[in-house]
UniProtKB/TrEMBL annotation:
Residues 27-150 form the GAF domain. It comes from Sinorhizobium mexicanum. SUPFAM superfamilies: GAF domain-like. This is GAF domain-containing protein. It comes from the Bacteria. Keywords: Plasmid. It holds the Pfam family GAF_2.
Amino acid sequence: MNTEHIAALADFDATIANDAGTEAAYRALQTLSRKLIGAKLFTIMTVDMANELARRAYTSHPDEYPVSGTKPIHYDRWFDTVHKARETFVANTIADISTVFGDYETIAALGCGSVVNIPVVVGGELLGTVNCLDVEHHYTPERVALSKLLEMPAKLAFLAAARNTAK
């Protein structure tokens, strides 16, 4: 971790400490993600495993990926990695992305060809994922290692959002 990363984490902390809004928490996480690992497209998904549904709670691209409605959870290798193993999913080509995401053409049209999906787990429960997408081959082993620095801030952002929703 370098001084830029430390400053980015401090900026995230300051935002969370001073703005209790759900949008602010997720926007701060988006900014942190872009500074740490890069993300042309950034979304937050929450999960409701009891009803087997996922919901987009935040997006950097509301026209292409609006925050509305739900979609069914699919049981595939992505699910096995993120939901079962609770590990980060990485795909670095649009061809690889197309094997798990049906919207791969929209992803490609936005200039993205790689993805990192970071599971957010609190108290043994998967709350959702942080999804960062960028150009093909962007998520190098070094960037994937840096994505670990997003895990704790992601938990904080999700908990801040849940706190706001409960009010």
